[in-house]
């Protein structure tokens, strides 16, 4: 058997043959092959969540989420497509207005996947009316701060806490517009949970919700990950690994 898949196990992504291993999704295989498919609620090593809808691709004429579409021999997948880009831009703009994303004052600016994805698609403004939610911060923990106003409900912290840290510090609660991030502790405060600043759940947040205290602006603006290279440059094996 050839690594990583069987000989001949390929699908087409924008006309380019991409090899895949049995069971892999289009997003996993494309990422491993060095192709960047925009995504927010997925990270290597995690099962698909399918919530952000940023990873939209076309399979034939159908628009699907690349993170939850199994790769199959001969699949004809399109990513570079004007209509798809327009759709993805709307999805990203909705994510911006649903929360409070004031990038210049956010510690995650330059390290934020939402901001970097917006830049990659040339988004210059919110387009939709801002919701301006008012969600109280949780600054109870001595080393960590939670700003719920930036949560895009990707569920990565929930999955990382369970899958990697062997804990259950975070959960998603509520439905629809009332969906929100929950801290699993008797008081609902982070200080009363068993979170540790080195937990994978802390580091995996793609936006600026889970922040370490006393590390503000340790890396100057202009020298951060997505200041140095666009997010589209990161689809290389291991680079996205949690
Ligand atoms: Fe995702 Fe961060 Fe919200 Fe957790 S806190 S669900 S990682 S955006
Ligand atoms: Fe596919 Fe979020 S990465 S829906």
Count of individual beta strands: 9
Helix content: 10-25%
CATH class of the largest domain: Alpha Beta
Oligomer: single chain
Strand content: 5-15%
Question: Could you characterize what this model shows?
Answer:
With about 240 residues, the protein is an alpha+beta fold. It has 2 domains: about 70 residues, Ubiquitin-like (UB roll) (Roll); about 120 residues, Alpha-Beta Plaits, CATH 3.30.70.20. It has a 5-stranded mixed sheet with strand order 2-1-5-3-4, with helices on both faces. The relative contact order is 0.15. The N terminus and C terminus are likely disordered. The structure holds iron/sulfur cluster and FE2/S2 (inorganic) cluster. The site of FE2/S2 (inorganic) cluster (FES) has 12 residues, from loops.
Question: How are the secondary structure elements laid out?
Answer:
Elements: E1 10-13, E2 16-19, H1 26-32, E3 56-59, E4 62-65, E5 76-78, H2 82-98, H3 113-120, E6 144-146, H4 156-163, E7 170-173, E8 180-183, H5 200-203, E9 210-212, H6 225-228
Parallel strand pairs: 1-5
Antiparallel strand pairs: 1-2, 3-4, 3-5, 6-9, 7-8
The protein binds iron/sulfur cluster and FE2/S2 (inorganic) cluster.
Key terms:
disordered N terminus; 2 domains; disordered C terminus; single chain; alpha+beta; globular; 242 residues; two-stranded antiparallel ribbon; Ubiquitin-like (UB roll); binds FE2/S2 (inorganic) cluster; 20% helix; 5-stranded mixed beta sheet; binds iron/sulfur cluster; Alpha-Beta Plaits
